[in-house]
Automatic annotation (TrEMBL), chain B:
Residue ranges constituting the ABC transporter domain according to the UniProt record: 5-228
SUPFAM superfamilies (UniProt xref): P-loop containing nucleoside triphosphate hydrolases
Species the sequence originates in: Planosporangium flavigriseum
Record lineage: Bacteria, Bacillati, Actinomycetota, Actinomycetes, Micromonosporales
Signal peptide residue numbers: none
Top-level taxon in the UniProt lineage: Bacteria
Cited CDD domains: ABC_DR_subfamily_A
A Pfam short name: ABC_tran
Coiled-coil segments: none
The keyword Nucleotide-binding is annotated on this UniProt entry: yes
GO molecular function annotation: ATP binding; ATP hydrolysis activity
SMART domains documented for this protein: AAA
InterPro entries, sorted: AAA+_ATPase, ABC_transporter-like_ATP-bd, ABC_transporter-like_CS, P-loop_NTPase
Protein name: Multidrug ABC transporter ATP-binding protein
Keywords: ATP-binding, Nucleotide-binding
Length: 245, 240
């Protein structure tokens, strides 16, 4: 592994993104737009917007980075650039960390716009600090990126890759407690939600919205999310095979 | 003769079907060796074995004294795939600079590689806007920017205009004179005469492994296309 190669890879991925201004626009504007919609859907119930809005700040980057990474990685596989890179001095981890860093930066920009808008114009109120919310949003983006990278190994086309989003992400959104409290679901669903990464990502954000200072529960959630990132990246590295048949 | 690539009794399966049937051949250092044969003869599979990305069933491939695919070889071997494997959403220059950076090579040499493949005018164009032949040259620039000891090129001249193809072959020979070993595949027999050595491949077996002059002499014809045909027919007669 080499920090130099990792950073050059990050720069290359950001350059690819820069040549695609429409994607940048969508990344920055869509979450802000959806938050605005949500704010006025819950116009009569600001308390609900405070609860749901803060979790959406974390969920949007997860979804966006999941989609972008799975398609970007699929392109590396199908255009032959991955095979080529693996014959050069690039280490698999250079590639993975290169992607993680590039998309974490993109997620930071996305979180800054969305959180800035939510706090400044949409009257979002949380007990904890906006910085913690933004930090968690970036963590969720890296989680989405790591899982997207892993599932891209199982997609043979962009059609399939895009459909992994509803397959992998929507069940987690349904079960993570955002729509209905987990302890009021059927027991077996709660058990399933206990092993889904997004449950912890959303729980951490809920903690920040309710408590002024970081709580022990929040730190546990953060630890689980980091653990999931590491596991997904390691499994993802295992799918980057130098030798194929 | 110093050997750059040694292939010994190599067997490769695609599914259950063998695509290389116990191949053995050698490529001398500092030469341009042509790997010729019709489409589907196993050229790309053999090339993938040399650069160490192909799973093999049995046999061995030794490259620059080490088993093919060894980590140390990744600094010493350049590989150009058949389909141009570069980033279509980057410019020519950004592609060359990125691949150069993987070897710790600076911008100046990356820009020189672009000039070498005749893309100076298109350096700041996105690859997606280029023609097929230009894309193939971007891919080539990204491999030779690292000045590898062994350059493995899978059909680098397909779709190039005759003048440029001539230039490329000239450059291959210049590189070989400077000590680089080149393994160049092609399905066009008129390129065979430009190589110092030939490996003729058909249906996963070697038909000939010799210099063009020796192949011509053995078959009694100056036309290498005709020579290839005679060799195949002679072997089929021998088997029957």
């Amino acid at each position: 592994m080499s920090a130099r190669i990792t950073l050059h890879t990050t720069a290359r991925i950001l350059r690819q993104l820069r040549h695609d201004p429409r994607t940048i626009g969508l990344l920055l504007v869509v979450p802000a737009l959806l938050l605005t919609l949500m704010r006025y859907v819950f116009d009569s119930q600001p308390a609900i917007f405070n609860r749901v809005g803060v979790t959406m700040l974390g969920v949007f980057p997860f979804i966006a980075m999941f989609l972008i990474t799975s398609v970007a990685m699929l392109r590396e596989r199908t255009t032959g650039t991955l095979e080529r890179l693996l014959t050069t001095p690039v280490h698999k981890l250079d590639l993975l960390f290169g992607y993680a860093l590039a998309f974490a930066l993109a997620a930071a920009a996305q979180a800054a716009v969305a959180a800035g808008l939510a706090y400044a114009l949409l009257d979002l109120a949380t007990a904890g600090s906006a910085w913690t919310v933004a930090g968690l949003a970036i963590g969720n983006a890296v989680l989405g990126m790591a899982i997207g990278l892993l599932v891209s190994a199982f997609a043979q086309s962009e059609f399939q890759a895009v459909q992994f989003m509803p397959a992998f992400v929507l069940p987690q959104m349904l079960l993570c407690g955002l729509i209905w409290p987990r302890d009021q679901m059927a027991g077996w669903l709660e058990t399933i939600s206990n092993v889904m990464p997004m449950t912890y990502a959303v729980d951490a954000l809920t903690e920040v919205s309710r408590h002024a200072d970081p709580t022990a529960t929040m730190w546990r959630d953060v630890a689980v999310v980091i653990g999931c990132i590491v596991v997904a990246l390691l499994l993802g590295a295992a799918t980057l095979r130098r030798r194929t048949s | 003769m110093e050997i750059a690539i040694g292939v010994d009794d190599l067997v490769v399966l695609r599914g259950k079907r063998p695509v290389l049937h116990g191949l053995s051949c050698t490529v001398p250092r500092g030469s341009v060796t042509g790997l010729l044969g019709p489409s589907g003869s196993g050229k790309t599979t053999l090339i993938r074995c040399v650069v160490g990305v192909q799973k093999i069933k049995s046999g061995s491939v030794t490259v620059l004294g080490q088993p093919a695919g060894s980590p140390a070889l990744r600094h010493r071997v350049g590989y150009v795939t058949q389909a141009p494997s570069v980033y279509a959403d980057l410019t020519v220059r950004e592609n060359a600079r990125y691949f150069a950076s993987l070897y710790g090579i600076g911008h100046r040499q990356a820009d020189q590689a672009i000039i070498d493949v005749g893309l100076k005018q298109a350096a700041d164009q996105l690859v997606t806007t280029l023609s097929g032949g230009q894309r193939a040259r971007v891919s080539l620039a990204c491999a030779w920017v690292s000045k590898p000891e062994l350059l493995v090129l899978d059909e680098p001249t397909v779709g190039q205009d005759p003048v440029l193809r001539n230039d490329l072959w000239q450059q291959f020979h210049d590189l070989a004179r400077a000590g680089t070993t080149l393994l160049v595949s092609s399905h066009v027999m008129d390129e065979a005469g430009r190589c110092e050595r030939l490996i003729l491949l058909r249906e996963g077996r070697i038909v000939a492994d010799d210099t063009p002059a020796a192949v011509r002499a053995a078959t009694g014809t100056d036309d290498l296309e005709e020579a290839f045909l005679r060799l195949v027919l002679a072997q089929e007669k021998a088997v029957a």
